[in-house]
């Protein structure tokens, strides 16, 4: 173990891979190199973990590296991941959570996923499947970091949810350890979430219902984090015990925390219409129609939905975008 995660000496020269990182804080962290056993599109695998273009916990740089700031069971940590040298993955991490992040690097990059279990049943999915051989489903091993932003995304536009997440993490999270590019923060600990005043939720654009759900969740944070050791369906059942967490939210969580290939999102405003249009030319499909169309992919329905989204085949818009709310006017 120690050999794989041996600390590296501080860098004295500035070379590629650290674009945007201030020279005075460029220093080596703990390193692990891992070789995937098949094609791997790192950006595609990790993309679902990004909550908007200005997510303070996530950065994707032009050099192909991806940076994540996470609150691990061992404390805050920052992970930099990049492909190099014949397709291997190099992870470098900083902070108290560095070793935990490196230990879980393969699963983060899709090592626990089995793409061979998927068989395309539609021409569209077969085409996308051939064009995206590097798609793997990530498994973070962390529940709360996916749960809280998913709660913030309930019943609002993505722009509103991303802004709320960005505001709260920057204000109440701690700066990410290591030579991070730009302003990166680790999300707040459960106790910190619990102590956020009501007016700060309001200032971030979060209504009382979503704020209350977050507060209920962080009160049982330890029990929810334990759900990562359960099968996805059992984990979803545990999450849904918390009032305010329903099937939509629990599916969004286990897709990321567990890499669950069958956790299709129901109750979504757009997904049924997208799936219906892509597979049957039905733009008015509801959840029941979507689930019927995805029946041939039982066990792999989330992967099928992901491929449909990657195809770009969406129904033409026939209504204006939903207006953003302003709880300050309520």
Automatic annotation (TrEMBL):
A molecular function GO annotation: DNA-3-methyladenine glycosylase activity
A single GO BP: DNA alkylation repair
UniProt catalytic activity: Hydrolysis of alkylated DNA, releasing 3-methyladenine, 3-methylguanine, 7-methylguanine and 7-methyladenine
Keyword DNA repair: yes
CDD domains assigned: ENDO3c
Keywords (A to Z) from UniProt: DNA damage, DNA repair
Organism, scientific name: Streptomyces echinoruber
Protein name: DNA-3-methyladenine glycosylase II
Database matches in InterPro entries: Alkylbase_DNA_Glycosylase/TA, DNA_glycosylase, HhH-GPD_domain
Top-level division of the source organism's lineage: Bacteria
EC nos: 3.2.2.21
Gene Ontology CC entries for this record: cytoplasm; protein-DNA complex
Top-level taxonomy: Bacteria, Bacillati, Actinomycetota, Actinomycetes, Kitasatosporales
